[in-house]
Design goal:
Blueprint (H helix, E strand, L loop, with lengths): L1 H14 L8 H16 L6 H14 L6 E3 L1 H12 L1 E4 L2 E6 L2 E7 L4 H5 L6 E5 L2 E2 L7 H8 L6 E7 L7 E6 L1 E4 L3 E6 L4 E6 L6 H14 L4 E5 L8 H9 L7 E6 L6 E4 L11 E5 L6 H11 L4 E4 L7 E7 L5 E10 L14 H5 L1 H8 L15 E3 L6 E3 L8 E2 L9 H8 L2 H20 L3 H7 L4 H13 L6 H23 L2 H8 L4 H11 L1 H8 L5
Parallel strand pairs: 11-12, 12-15, 15-16, 16-21
Antiparallel strand pairs: 1-18, 2-9, 3-4, 4-5, 5-6, 5-7, 7-8, 10-11, 13-14, 13-18, 17-18, 19-20
Helix pairs in contact: 1-2, 8-9, 13-15, 13-16, 16-17, 18-19
Length: 530
């Protein structure tokens, strides 16, 4: 305890000496730590006290400065670094059994012969079936350093005995592109789910493929994209902007202005472009969409973005923990600050999306009012855009609430939807693949039957989702669409899932309408011009 306390005191005393020699407030903190550890009535765990103190300090600053314990650091970084070490399967827990939904193409499990539909029963002679293990505990058993081995026993439909596999763990890619395909013979579509270390390589490959297929215009889907690396956002925007054009700049109290400009590397500087955003598009997504809007390079379609424009710097702490400290703000080329206000505190800040919904902003464009003091002009066409945090699209698409009900949400949230799909695929995989050798035929002709919906509602009853006839009728066609899309995802990939689900996406349908009608596309640009 004394050694730990001495380390804390040294860190507090010397780690901050460069900014505050003999600072009375820092001495106050070290004294509080010392006397609490020595004189408190009960025994205390100093590591927790220090962690809580750091968390409390950061909470007073802004909503995005945060403390990450040592054991969480790697887990937090994995999605952005683009890979993790493991066996390479996507799985679902069905009745306390791990069901392999898909194997990662070229991954360790596929190489040894594990296939979709297999049920992993044992991991290194430890039973994981029927024991109600948490997903995180199972992942801990399956993941491990590259080159290490894990032995599993698998139950396969139609095979009497368990099958033994020895899997050598390897790097498993985490993809940041969900889908890329041709909408028609001229319009391409790319959906980016995050901005990671591999995003640009993935995007370059997808863009090149679509251009070879005849793409002349593009839908870039950033709906639900919560952000990621600034470098990836800048590189993506660079694809669409001419050399020398400002993409974004950052500035903070202790950080001088840093600017990021487009280079001559862009591969789609010409050609009509629509960017889809919504209330969950944040940070890096807002950098890209804000830059393209300010330069009148793209038509933005959807709803006002999240409004996260604070720059976090990762700072390593003794022992392996980390703080992510806000050091600057992001600005668009016209000078708009992306970050929405947070003066009323973190709790109110996190309620903002709920307040937007209650206020009607997600359904009605005229409920969003901007003062003239926040008015800016775009850099090419001098169109009116607004600051004050977040990015307002050029074409507003209201949130569709007509088919969404509490009953539908509960079927999905309680796992009944996933279970119904997995049961169907497991029982019919060979028939589906035989009857629909190509996705195009499946997409055009496959129908979710009433019997399949009945199984879904029955599974809902087992998960305590009481059948609601009125709400079921309202959500029925959406349930059919989702089941069809999820079956396609399990048979093929997420690419096919989004091709089906986008048929219900009003922003996506509006983007197609704009790109197919050159006059409408150009008229939308001058809509806000004064």
């Amino acid at each position: 305890m004394k050694k730990f306390l001495m380390m804390v005191a040294l860190v507090l005393s010397f780690g901050f000496s460069a900014v505050a020699d003999s600072n009375e407030e820092l001495q106050k903190l070290t004294h509080a730590v010392y006397f609490t550890s020595h004189y408190y009535v009960d025994s205390v765990k100093m590591s927790k006290l220090v962690d809580d103190a750091i968390v409390g300090m950061l909470e007073q600053l802004d909503p995005h400065s945060s403390y990450i314990p040592k054991e969480e650091v790697q887990k937090m970084n994995e999605p952005l670094e683009g890979s993790f070490d493991g066996i390479g399967v996507q799985f679902q827990m069905v009745e306390d059994t791990l069901l392999v939904v898909q194997t990662i193409s070229g991954g360790p499990s596929e190489k040894v012969g594990i296939v979709a539909g297999d049920r992993i029963v044992y991991v290194n002679d430890t039973t994981i079936a029927g024991v109600k293990m948490q997903n995180t505990d199972i992942m801990h058993k399956l993941r491990g350093p590259k080159g290490t081995t894990v032995n599993v026993k698998v139950l396969r439909r139609g095979v009497k005995n368990l099958i033994d596999f020895r899997i050598v763990r390897d790097k498993i890619p985490v993809y940041s592109l969900d889908a890329s395909y041709m909408v028609d013979d001229k319009i391409g579509y790319i959906k980016v789910n995050r901005f990671s270390a591999t995003t640009i390589d993935e995007f370059n490959e997808a863009l090149s493929k679509l251009k070879k297929e005849g793409m002349e215009s593009l839908i870039l889907d950033l709906q639900g994209n919560g952000g990621g690396y600034l470098t990836a956002a800048v590189a993506l925007a660079d694809h669409f902007l001419q050399s020398g054009r400002l993409i974004t700049y950052t500035e903070g109290n202790a950080q001088s202005r840093l600017t990021y400009e487009a280079t001559s590397k862009g591969d789609f500087e010409k050609g009509d472009l629509v960017v889809l955003i919504d209330e969950n598009s944040a940070s890096a997504s807002e950098i890209v969409s804000g830059a393209l809007q300010d330069w009148d390079r793209a038509m933005l379609v959807g709803r006002r973005s999240f409004g996260k424009g604070l720059v976090q710097k990762p700072i390593e702490l003794p022992g392996g923990a980390q703080i992510r400290l806000t050091i600057a703000r992001y600005y668009t080329p016209t000078g708009r600050c992306i970050q929405r206000p947070y003066k009323e505190g973190t709790k109110q800040y996190r309620r903002d999306l709920i307040e937007r919904y209650n206020h009607g902003e997600l359904m009605h464009e005229d409920s969003i009012v901007f003062p003239d003091s926040l008015k800016y002009k775009t850099l090419s066409m001098r169109r009116v855009v607004y600051g004050g945090g977040a990015i307002m699209p050029d074409v507003f698409i209201p949130l569709d609430t007509t088919r969404y009900t509490d009953y539908h949400r509960n079927l999905v949230a309680k796992g009944a939807m996933n279970k119904a799909v997995l049961n169907y695929v497991e029982a019919n995989r060979k028939d589906i693949m035989r009857n629909y050798p190509r996705f195009e035929k499946y997409n055009k002709t496959f129908e979710v039957t009433d019997a399949m919906l009945k199984e879904l509602t029955d599974l809902g009853e087992k998960e305590e989702v009481k059948f609601n006839e009125e709400e079921f009728a309202k959500s029925k066609e959406l349930l059919r669409l989702q089941m069809k899309a999820l079956i396609a995802r399990d048979i093929w990939k997420t690419n096919e899932y989004f091709q089906i689900m986008n048929a219900n996406n009003d922003s996506y349908l509006k983007a197609i309408e704009l790109l197919r009608d050159k006059n409408l596309y150009q008229k939308s640009f001058v809509k806000r011009k004064e």
